[in-house]
Amino acid sequence: MRLILGLTIFLLAVTSLLQYPEARVMPAKNADFLNPYRVPGKATIVSFRARWCSSCEAMRHIIEKQVSLHPTVRVKEIDVDEISVPGLRISSIPHLFIYDENSGFVGEVRGADEGSLASLLKKVDSVKSRHLQL
After folding, report:
1. Which residues lie below 8 Å from residue 49, measured CB to CB, with a gap of 6+?
2. Which class is domain 26-133?
3. CA separation for the pair 107, 120 (Å, rounded)
4. What secondary structure does DSSP assign to 11-71, as a single string?
């Protein structure tokens, strides 16, 4: 019985991906579809969230705290209930994509994880300081 249920779920998932190829999750580092949400010349956090999501609200406060420590970073919030980004399927929120000032992909954070966000923003700072030295 478990085998039949497992195969049924698998076949439904495969069928869904074949019918809706835009539902495939694309790698964030190649995510050109996020270009409109990046701020040119500035490190950017693209934050996918929803109003009803309590973890998203917690992450919003974490982002505000981290941005106060990294004032050159800009934040673009996308409410998943209002805006759909073609080519990207967000399976959990909050979900952040972090880019340096050259729009280079730095990393992503899933969930309200302050440590991961702080670590990625330190990488953004190190990229910026390397460019300043050149």
Report:
1. 56, 59, 60, 77, 78, 79, 80, 93, 94
2. alpha beta
3. 7
4. HHHHHHHHH-GGGSPPPGGG-GGGGGGS-TTS-EEEEEE-TT-HHHHHHHHHHHHHHHHST
Q: What's the predicted TM-score (pTM) here?
A: 0.70
Q: Which two tokens stand for residue 125?
A: 């700072």
* Distance, CA of 37 to CA of 40 (rounded, Å): 9
Q: 79: how many CB neighbours lie within 10 A of its CB?
A: 15
Within 10 Å of residue 120's Cβ, how many Cβ atoms? 23
Q: CA 29, CA 120: separation in Å to the nearest integer?
A: 14
3-class state of residue 131 by DSSP: helix
Quote the CA–CA distance of 88 and 113 in Å, as a whole number.
21
User: Are the beta carbons of 96 and 46 closer than 8 angstroms?
Assistant: yes
Q: Where are the domains of the chain?
A: 26-133
**97-111 pLDDT tens trace:** 998 888 788 999 999
